[in-house]
Write a structure and sequence with these properties.
Order of helices and strands: EHEHHEHEHEHEHEEEHEHH
Oligomer: single chain
Structural class: alpha/beta
Strand order of the largest sheet: 1-2-3-4-5-6-7-10
Strand content: 15-25%
Shape: globular
């Protein structure tokens, strides 16, 4: 399987070192971010591209455009700026996350946003990775909903869904869409005391034997169904971010996942 590395797996590691670390871990695909750490606001895109080329890694995506499904205010301007940055730094895609504050967003609004975003992506040769968020307050919780909106917007390959093992579990999804999936995010939850409905990003750690999200079962199902794309580590927990040796921790999680498969 193809492992990839999201910069949030080691946000305190400098970008250049992060690229080199990813390569040492046997991964040649990475994701950069506009939040933690905010590479987009602190690095010139041409410098990001040069660093990636020097390290021998491919930038899968910038994570993330939010909230993509409310096409108003400054979102169109931010979408263009992020797409320009992605094209300039050599990224292949933009991750697109829905509104996640309890406000409902209709199917038609989501389709309209996808329609508006499509020319921005296509003119720059980018893919839009639509990531449903499984939280109870999310305006787009499931991949089924996302695929329905993508289909109505015209399924010409501009959009793929992003399968996040954490959000798949939170939303109670059972269906897999390997042919519609462009990227998988993997992370685990090991806290035995938190209910599924109360799980938050802060609970997301690296995948190990104590994982409650059934990452291994999800990965097996995706592989069996024919998905051959990358699996990118995306842990949000501070204990991961503050690890004394993030490279060793990631190597251990990679080894665990490989051993289970």
């Amino acid at each position: 399987m193809r492992f990839a590395m999201n910069h949030i797996a080691a946000p305190k590691v400098d970008l250049v070192e992060f690229f080199e670390m990813a390569k040492r871990l046997g991964t040649t695909e990475v994701e950069i971010r506009n939040d933690l750490p905010n590479v987009v606001a602190t690095w010139a895109p041409e410098d990001v591209k040069a660093a990636a080329e020097k390290a021998g890694v491919t930038i899968l995506s910038i994570n993330a455009l939010y909230p993509f499904n409310v096409w108003s205010g400054d979102l169109p301007e931010r979408a263009v700026a992020m797409a320009d940055y992605a094209a300039a730094c050599g990224a292949k895609a933009l991750v697109m996350c829905p509104l996640n504050d309890g406000t409902p967003v209709s199917h038609s609004q989501t389709v309209a946003a996808l329609d508006a975003m499509k020319p921005i992506l296509t003119e720059r040769g980018l893919t839009g990775l639509v990531e449903p968020l499984g939280f109870p307050i999310s305006s787009l919780r499931t991949k089924a909903e996302a695929i329905a909106a993508i289909t109505e917007a015209g399924d010409d390959g501009t959009y793929k869904v992003l399968h996040d093992t954490f959000h798949h579990h939170l939303a109670g999804e059972t269906q897999f869409y390997p042919n519609r999936t462009g990227l998988v995010h993997i992370s685990g939850v090991t806290d035995p005391g938190v209910a599924v409905a109360d799980m938050l990003d802060a609970h997301r750690v690296l995948v190990d034997a104590a994982d409650r999200l059934e990452n291994i079962a999800q990965i097996r199902a995706l592989i069996a169904a024919g998905f051959s794309g990358p699996y990118s580590f995306e842990p949000f927990a501070e204990e991961v971010h503050n690890a004394d040796d993030p490279e060793a921790a990631l190597a251990e999680s990679i080894a665990y996942v490989k051993a289970q498969l």
